[in-house]
Amino acid sequence: YWPGSPSTDYEGPVDTDAAGDRHFWDVWSGSKPVERYLDACPRFMSEYGFQAMPEMATVRAFAGNGPLTPDSPVLKAHQKFLAG
Fold first, then answer.
1. Cα 34 from Cα 53, distance rounded (Å)
2. Mean pLDDT for the chain?
């Protein structure tokens, strides 16, 4: 049982390669190059990756037929990770 995620035993630091599970968001939220994934080899990687849009039918269901540029108001309203 893990009390949360990322987690480790109750003694050590969390989010390390040595124990527990790890969240590795350096590439997406840290704006590091994709090769950075080669630098980490945790016991279990429970989260990593890139943000992705759902399929177009889902987007159109909430966005309508308007423009879908990254800075369009409807997409900005649904963006939960705004850098800067």
1. 19
2. 82
Identify the helix (H) or strand (E) that includes residue 44: strand 44-48
C-alpha distances (whole Å) from 16 to each of 8, 13, 24, 39, 56 are: 8, 7, 9, 12, 37
Task: From 16, 18, 17, 21, select the one nearest 3 (Cα to Cα).
Answer: 21
Q: pLDDT band at 60, cuts 50/70/90?
A: very high
Residues 6+ apart with CB under 8 A from 6: 14, 15, 20, 21, 22, 23, 46, 47
Q: What angle do CA 66, 69, 71 make, to 5 degrees?
A: 110
Q: Is 77 helix (H, G, I), strand (E, B) or coil?
A: helix
Residues written for the chain: 84
Residue 21 has phi, psi (to 5 degrees) of -115, 160
